[in-house]
Amino acid sequence: MTYVSLGFYPFLALILLVYFIMPLRFRWVVLLAGSAAFYILLSGDGFPVLLFTLLLSYGAGLLLAFLKERSPKPVLLQRIVLAASIFLVMAPWFVIKNGSFLLGHTNWGLIVPLGISFYTLQIVSYLADVHSGRISVQKNPAKYALFVLFFPQILQGPIPRYAQLADQLYEGHLFDEKQFVKGMQLILWGFFLKFLIADRASIVVNVIFENPSKYQGSYVLVAAVLYSIELYADFLSCVTLSQGIAGLFGIGLTDNFLRPYFATSVKDFWRRWHISLSMWLRDYIYIPLGGSRKGKLRKYGNLIITFAFSGIWHGSGYKFLFWGMMHAAFQIVGDLTAPIKSRCYQLFRLSVGSGTRRLIQRLGVFVWVALAWIIFRADNLRSGLLMIKSLFSIWNPWILVDGSLLRLGLNGKEWFVLFLSVLTLFLVDCLQERGCCIRDGILEKAVYLRWALYIAVILGIMIFGVYGYGYQTQDFIYGGF
After folding, report:
1. Predicted confidence (pLDDT) per residue in 63-105, tens digit
2. Considering the entire predicted model, what is its pTM?
3. Buried (b) or exposed (e) across 67-86, using 16+ Cβ within 10 A?
4. What is the CA angle 448-454-457, rounded to 5?
């Protein structure tokens, strides 16, 4: 039962019904019961690990708050407790996710609890914020459990901060028709992104990446571009669905993607891509290490450590670590070459903010990020490096126009549907980049126009997405984290 399965929505409707029937002060209990049931139904075998982490972190939070009350200034004992609690909280994640790699074989045999990478970082931020005094400890164990278990976001983010989410969960919300409709709009948009773009693009991506010795040169270019689109559509879809589902209850989750392929530098890309993770890495690794305050050499070292952790968080094996190092290198080289690039733009009279300059910068960012995605998606580091090598060493651009692409799982009509869907996403991103709120604009239209649009979107998803081409919907890429 996932956010794109038919069985999920009767379950969601039941929780909504009970939630709005219950008195306001008890509505958080409905969310807790629904969240626990959802997780157990979906990952019952992984629940004991989550429960262990919950109990451990709840007790650690109380202990940290107790020590802080006795001595408000950070003392050695507080730091030892914080470090020990973070170590114990992260230990299950590290062992389960990296055990096979460290032992050198794949028969690790441990169950991977769904969402473990997300709720582990969520709990670490909670403990760190209690220690620093940014938040007050949650003394009610049931309310603390709801903060961690809240079902719209536990599987695939965004990674919430306690200060952002807790009050919304506990206060109870009245039914708001406008808020409810905006949540439904997000759910429809999430379905569109998943079924018409991500799942369709994945067909071609899977064929090429699963046969790297057969598909080389320009095939790798096609795979890199499509995988970049697939990742964005898939990640944006899961977060949009999470926001839409939470919005039905009147609860707002933070944006996690802000048109990342419109970024003008790799640094800017990480301000827009998986924002909750980027901010977590900044606040709990990069800044505590010293950030950019202690000279460039220290700054670059901190970047390397931060992106090394990011790589390890995304998966075990050398390829993820290498992927993280690529992004650290992109930022370091970008920083070192900034004066040279600035002089080149001045030479060609491309002022800051000009359309041509932004276009060049965005294309450059996309190229670097797409190259890194090849490593990220490949079966292993060696395969990914060989694919990148073939991209520059094998010359076969004719496959783009001689019909070869029609033998990769999609026929001409399916390619056309994919193209129109990606174009729609691009146009929506352009409008949002200019500050347009499309959902509010739709709500301002006449009722018959709104419903005509909703029905058209639903029919389009059903005809061209779910039922159109006989392939099975894939799980969200981040769902297994």
Report:
1. 999 998 887 776 888 999 999 999 999 998 888 877 666 655 5
2. 0.91
3. bbeeeeeeeeebeebbeebb
4. 140
